[in-house]
Amino acid sequence: MQTILELTLGCEDCGKSLIGECKLHGPLIRAKDRIIPSRARLTLPHYLTLRVLELRAGNQQILGVFAKKVIQKRTQFGPYVGQLSTKLTCYDESRLVLQVLKDGGKYFLDTPNEDCGNWMMFVRLARNQEEQTLVAYQHCGEVYFTTVKPIEPHTELKVWYAADYAKFMETSAVFIKEESDVSPLPVVAVAKLSNLRPISAIPICYALASWSDNTLIASVFPV
């Protein structure tokens, strides 16, 4: 319950403390603070832009990162910024699950909110070879994204695991192909995230490995 002191407003013209607005001089003119973008948004390079791709319940925005100019092949971005954690507090099926090796331990790069990471947290995963523009890999305990092809303006940046990093992530770097689409499902995510369905519950035709090194590996999962 609020006290009288908490409800009073001072009117300098009247020289009085009043409950509510001054009836003689009217309400105060309220100036709002400037809205500051999150840390992640502030780190976005000038030749990249964020676009809202979908608006979900609770005003949740699904964002994508797009090029504003041509980005050359072999352009490196990073390192990826996130909180080191033994478990993920936030999982988004459209983003890669990332881990690093630190002091002999394996940790997730967790980004529970936009002030815990950099712009790379907005990069969505690639669903097939055609839309993959970036490859994710670990170097000296950090994760970087590097372009695998020139990226044209207005093209979305999408990423998938490099072959060696996929092994570190305890996955075969597979793309699970269903009848209607191609969608990735890292094994490490299935093993460590309780809100995902078991692999056996997903209808699967066949699986294709990452092509970051131009090698195709086929794996079959039980239905």
TrEMBL record:
Gene3D superfamilies to which the protein is assigned, alphabetical: SET domain (2.170.270.10)
Start and end residues of each SET domain: 48-162
Highest taxon in the source lineage: Eukaryota
Biological process terms in GO annotation: regulation of gene expression
InterPro entries, per database record: SET_dom, SET_dom_sf, Zinc_finger
Keywords linked to the UniProt accession: Transcription, Transcription regulation
GO CC terms: nucleus
Name assigned to this protein: SET domain-containing protein
Source organism: Bambusicola thoracicus
Lineage, uppermost ranks: Eukaryota, Metazoa, Chordata, Craniata, Vertebrata
